[in-house]
Design a protein that fits this description.
heterodimer; A: 115 residues; mainly beta; 4-stranded antiparallel β-sheet; 50% strand; B: 108 residues; 5-stranded antiparallel β-sheet
């Protein structure tokens, strides 16, 4: 069964460093998302991406964040200058063309630890 | 601010019993509702979606939606210890708003 994959599973970085989190969505899906979950808190929407552009972003997704689909399979989240409060699980999700079905399928996540 | 509310629990039920999980949402025009299961340290796993008022059944799971009351619920029949997890309610079409989740413990 097709699934969303994410790499790395765990990333440790120092404050101020840039990180890139990678995702491979399910191959026939057209909508892509990033969410994050700080330990013990709710899953929060960061950004949605469709047709090679951002369709919506949250207040969390400030100028330090960017997303890209560099080729036909990868979808990346870049944090330019990490802060301690960026430490969280980051989940990528995708769903197919959304005419009747809006079910999102989540990847296993990347645990980002900023020290 | 759109909100999705869930009782954080834990909700403890004996093995074989019915677990009932509830969720309310604030955005009256919401059209799409989802239940996810999340084991500790893992990602959300889709259980069910529901879009219309009424009940939707899938195996041991039944989702119930009442848009007039802005309420969605999940029933788990014949609960098993492996059902012990946090259940997340999500509302939205392209952007999900999640609740904080209800922790379910099924006691063997």
């Amino acid at each position: 069964e097709p699934e969303v994959t994410q790499t790395p599973s765990h990333q440790v970085t120092q404050m101020g460093q840039e990180v890139i989190l990678r995702c491979v969505p399910i191959s026939n899906h057209l909508y892509f998302y990033w969410y994050r979950q700080i330990l013990g808190q709710k899953v929060e929407f960061l950004v949605s991406f469709y047709n090679n552009e951002i369709s919506e972003k949250s207040e969390i997704f400030d100028d330090q964040f960017s997303v890209e689909r560099p080729d036909g399979s990868n979808f990346t989240l870049k944090i330019r200058s990490t802060k301690l409060e960026d430490s969280a699980m980051y989940f990528c999700a995708s769903h197919p063309s959304g005419s009747i079905d809006y079910e999102q399928y989540f990847g296993p996540g990347t645990r980002l630890t900023v020290t | 601010q759109k909100e999705v509310e869930q009782n954080s629990g834990p909700l403890s039920v004996p093995e074989g019993a019915i677990a009932s999980l509830n969720c309310t949402y604030s955005d009256r025009v919401s059209q799409s509702f989802f239940w996810y299961r999340q084991y500790s340290g893992k990602s959300p796993e889709l259980i069910m979606s529901i879009y219309s008022n009424g009940d939707k059944e899938d195996g041991r799971f039944t989702a119930q939606l009442n848009k007039a009351s802005q309420y969605v619920s999940l029933l788990i029949r014949d609960s098993q210890p492996s059902d012990s997890a946090t259940y997340l309610c999500a509302v939205g079409t392209y952007k999900y708003i999640f609740g904080t989740g209800t922790r379910l413990k099924v006691l063997a």
